[in-house]
Amino acid sequence: MAEAAMVIAMGILAGWARLVVAERSQPAHTTAEADPRGRGPLTRGVVPSRTMAARGDLSFFLLGGIEARLEGKLLALGGARQRTVIADLALNARRVVSTRRLVDDLWGDQAPTSAGHSLEAHISRIRGLLVRSGVDGAIVSRSGGYMMDVEPDQVDALRFERLAAEGDAALVKGDAAEAARLYREALEMWRGPALADLGDSPLGSSAGQRLDARRLLVLERQVDAALMLGRHREISGELESLLAVHPYHERFHWQLMLALYRSRRQAEALAAYRRARQTLVDDLGIEPGPELQQLERAILHQELDLELPAEVSHAAGSETFVPGPTIAAPAEADLRSPSPSAPTAIGSARRHRQHRRGRLAAVASAFVLALIAAAAPLLLRGHGGTVTVRPNGLGMLSADGRAVASELALDAPPGQLAAGGGSLWATSPEAHVVYRIDPATQRVTQSISVGGGADGIAIGYGSAWVANALDGTVSRIDLATNRVVDTIGVGSAPTAVAVGEGSVWVADATGGTLERIDPATDRLIASVSLSSPPFDIAVFAGAVWVTSQSANQVLRVNPVTGNITQDIAVGGGPTAVVAGNGSVWVANSRDSTVSAIDPRRGSVAATIPVDNGPSSLAAGAGGVWVANALSGTLSLIDPGQKRVVSSIGVGNRPVAIAGDGADVWFAVRAAQTGQHRGGTLHAESSFPLASIDPANLWPEAPSQLWAYTYDTLVTYQRSGGRSGLQLVPDLAVFLPSPSDGGTTYTFVLRPGVRYSTGQLVRPEDFRHGFERTLELNGAGAGSFLEGITGASACATRPAHCDLSKGITVDERTDTVTFHLTSTDTNFLYKLTFVFTAPVPVNIPARDVGSSPVPSTGPYEIRRFIPGHELDLVRNPRFHEWSAAAQPDGFPDQINWTFGMSPGQEAAAVEHGAADWTSDIGPGTLSEAATAFAGQLHINAGLGTYYLFLNTRVAPFDDVRVRRALNLAVDRSRLVQIFGGPLVAQPACQLLPPSMPGYQPYCPYTADPSPTGAWVGPDLAAARALVAASGTGGERVTVWAHQGDPPSTPTAEYVASVLQQLGYPATVHFLKESEWVSTVSDSRRQVQLGTNNWIADYPAPSNFYTLWLGCSNFVPADPLHTSNASEFCDPGVDQQVSKASALQTTDPLHANALWADIGREITDLAPVLPVVNFSSADLLSRRCGNYQFSPAVGILLDQLWVR
């Protein structure tokens, strides 16, 4: 029975996962409603612009011949070129299409020299046609391109996508009847092949083929809905018709076999399998896939799980399946043009709430991931060519690619692979190392420490080049000596590296640039600004090919000029790119496809379906291998036939694949299966935990204490590396865009989430949780929530807190809406704190003591002894709704012990009595780095230690003096004061390197370079600036904080530097109780003092606004002043506001602005940055699968306990 259940699950998954996951890459579209006068779709829930009413009557039809209608009247479009432009812009409604892309889609590689002028002429004619028809402003010019300013639902292809996504979501919820209706409505819009007018033009070949393939998938889903409704008898004939047109479509064969079997026609079901096999073998020379073979075996054994559940079978009798164009073969589809008033017209859209679409699409995605996780244990048994490869290691395929010939365990989870120099190379982002493997002996010959977050790797020019994503560098490893011979600063987040055309090419995902390194000098020689964030790189056919996951494009870059010569549309979420076998191959992670690009034409030659979540590619003589992370498989593509010819399951998540010319190697990480689950993890902390109430956990308790027990609407992606800074929905279905001028946020809740007590999580629990927080912890958490309407009143009268106006809830729609008093671009970040977690309304507003608030995460609190011990055990009600937000944990139990000294904690871990601690002093850290190097993990943090320089008090009211002090300070001395390079690194900017928007820049160093690295002090230049200012001899007082241990030695050293510059300097010490009231009071005229800051959330504004914003300097008011530098630059404030507003919607643009702001503030020097902090984790020998998130820290629940 288990195998039969698996057959059905995998059969549904195989045809479904690609579609549902792909929907996540589609833009959110506004739901349209039919105008009762029959004029077409109107936008509801959107405030119309001055011209929107006229544009709302305009509709575009692309699912067949290309048409445009205004109030139902057909417009007279021009020839094929005009229609191509219209289709291109309509398919991207409300999104800018670059001029380069439009030219490529019009002419491909045959573009004339006058292509730009010709495009402008076509745009002008289309605008003229629309204006003469009474529509103005439909096509808008934007920087670098054009945009069709119409609602997505005014384009039949986009509405088709939306309806299909809603159908998937309905199917996930178990509402098969609603799903069938939505699929039917979506499919009825088709009038023939998509973009039929364009033939084999570049756009017709790419977008047209994608839409046709999507239609086929929706047809599959319609059959799935019919099977779920028990309509197997009615659809058998329709499936026969579909197979007559698509004889090689194995999915339809699978569905037909199941429909026949459920119709008590077992012999015919088996005959259908034999026909399918004969067709595939005779025509294509291949055997049926594993899903068909497994279904045949289940039918032969008459497995009970193949039957429809009795309750479904009974319910199905009340409905009749009506065959129609939804199931009809494409050749039989109605080719007539739609009537504006007919049911097939866009204007017949039924009413849907705008939030419903996003909610259901996200639920569908979560369901597919859950289905994969559920299927994994059965896959590991070896059905259908599946073997189990141990996680966090490497595997080598057999010569025929049908088995795993050998395995190799690594000490840490692998990242990327590369082959070269007679070796295989594997990075580990968590361990910050590169492993060198001898393929002959299959042993690790060297483990080489590199920079933070070692990710991409490439071999060339006698070296291995490693992109270190967490510290903005590239490490160069000499192949002969196995040593790092140079570390090159290349931006903020280098994730991929490639070699070729005489250079080393590096992708900076945060900065949105392609960096070029000269391997002869190891210097940066060029930086190419890209139109979207890069992901991966390949060098081939005289070009550099760069994937952009967010833009669904591959950028072709001229390696000589650095110009982008093409942007090629591929599938959803392109990640890996590799060149070989005459093509450029691109893995589309959201579509679960691989695009083959013809480099001569610069266009997609084929789109090849593969298994779920392709993440890495390798091209060689045997073909193109694809590592499919979500499905746990490897697929082999025949480059000539452009199709998958074999696949093998590996049990865990293959994240990388590479070939060394003779063998194919792949790297695997752990999948959430039964393997490695279990055991008790013992954690140590010197922090004496006093409360387990979510309202009171912040700010004292580390995030590891609550991240696995409680959930919030929004959280950070639970993954290692920079992706751990990404906001993702947790208890919400999707991240909403604000409305009402940025003051309203509406969240749709995930359905079916329960507390550990079994209660459903309800909308009112969120408001209750916020009110409890303000009543119990208003002093600590109140500053983050004060922007919610009514929160300020709660601060003054906490016992009578009422947020009914600030947080409105709707049980019927499962929504929670926040109403803010003013725009807050950081509001989503603030919702990640534990004090925003929902709390059942029956729990009163008093600390819960030792009786915990019910949990929603994978663990619940079983026992709590205040200040001594905390036990977490599995939450029996937890189910994984999002692996990105809250994955299931590995240990069965996590036991915390509090109150030991840092030295005792380290000793307990070293001797195996405990498994983890992060309380490690500098002395212990140095010992551990030597004696327990494999157990110690150092990671960059989100904090900076600095001195504020009062820009309104002499001598620091002169920027030359501020710059002089920055130049004169020896930051290496300060690093030693803080405990050495394991604890701290020199800082030139207020923003730490691990923060989004950071770009290396350091003008305050000897021998400044483009890498932005601090080299040493320049006392001579500093003295010249002081002399020019004429301020030498003025008395200076450095203020130190007695409650901050590094403050005193730091202040004393800075005072000694000031004396070298000619300023008589002394140090004044303040008690903690006096600090704020003194240094934040402009009347005291404090000149400079020490300060440190660890970000509340990974937004640069948390540094700039808080410590340097005009709003946080209020003269003579220390209570409302945090900006002790008294720095106020309205221009900088405006830039900060602009960048903050773009942070979640356009991070590439925002990061570029943050980099500009960082350079400007560094030049103005209102602060003296000293060091950036690091964090340390010490693990016992029995722990594995270490992962570090910059936002959360160590992912304790993902550790294995061996």
Automatic annotation (TrEMBL):
<dbReference type="InterPro" id="IPR001867">
    <property type="entry name" value="OmpR/PhoB-type_DNA-bd"/>
</dbReference>
<feature type="domain" description="OmpR/PhoB-type">
    <location>
        <begin position="50"/>
        <end position="150"/>
    </location>
</feature>
<keyword id="KW-0804">Transcription</keyword>
<dbReference type="InterPro" id="IPR011990">
    <property type="entry name" value="TPR-like_helical_dom_sf"/>
</dbReference>
<keyword id="KW-0805">Transcription regulation</keyword>
<comment type="similarity">
    <text>Belongs to the AfsR/DnrI/RedD regulatory family.</text>
</comment>
<dbReference type="Pfam" id="PF00486">
    <property type="entry name" value="Trans_reg_C"/>
</dbReference>
<feature type="DNA-binding region" description="OmpR/PhoB-type">
    <location>
        <begin position="50"/>
        <end position="150"/>
    </location>
</feature>
<dbReference type="GO" id="GO:0006355">
    <property type="term" value="P:regulation of DNA-templated transcription"/>
</dbReference>
<feature type="region of interest" description="Disordered">
    <location>
        <begin position="331"/>
        <end position="353"/>
    </location>
</feature>
<dbReference type="InterPro" id="IPR016032">
    <property type="entry name" value="Sig_transdc_resp-reg_C-effctor"/>
</dbReference>
<keyword id="KW-1133">Transmembrane helix</keyword>
<dbReference type="InterPro" id="IPR015943">
    <property type="entry name" value="WD40/YVTN_repeat-like_dom_sf"/>
</dbReference>
<feature type="transmembrane region" description="Helical">
    <location>
        <begin position="360"/>
        <end position="380"/>
    </location>
</feature>
<dbReference type="InterPro" id="IPR000914">
    <property type="entry name" value="SBP_5_dom"/>
</dbReference>
<dbReference type="InterPro" id="IPR036388">
    <property type="entry name" value="WH-like_DNA-bd_sf"/>
</dbReference>
<dbReference type="Pfam" id="PF03704">
    <property type="entry name" value="BTAD"/>
</dbReference>
<dbReference type="InterPro" id="IPR051677">
    <property type="entry name" value="AfsR-DnrI-RedD_regulator"/>
</dbReference>
<keyword id="KW-0812">Transmembrane</keyword>
<keyword id="KW-0238">DNA-binding</keyword>
<dbReference type="InterPro" id="IPR005158">
    <property type="entry name" value="BTAD"/>
</dbReference>
<dbReference type="Pfam" id="PF00496">
    <property type="entry name" value="SBP_bac_5"/>
</dbReference>
<dbReference type="GO" id="GO:0000160">
    <property type="term" value="P:phosphorelay signal transduction system"/>
</dbReference>
<dbReference type="InterPro" id="IPR011048">
    <property type="entry name" value="Haem_d1_sf"/>
</dbReference>
<keyword id="KW-0472">Membrane</keyword>
<dbReference type="GO" id="GO:0003677">
    <property type="term" value="F:DNA binding"/>
</dbReference>
<protein>
    <recommendedName>
        <fullName>OmpR/PhoB-type domain-containing protein</fullName>
    </recommendedName>
</protein>
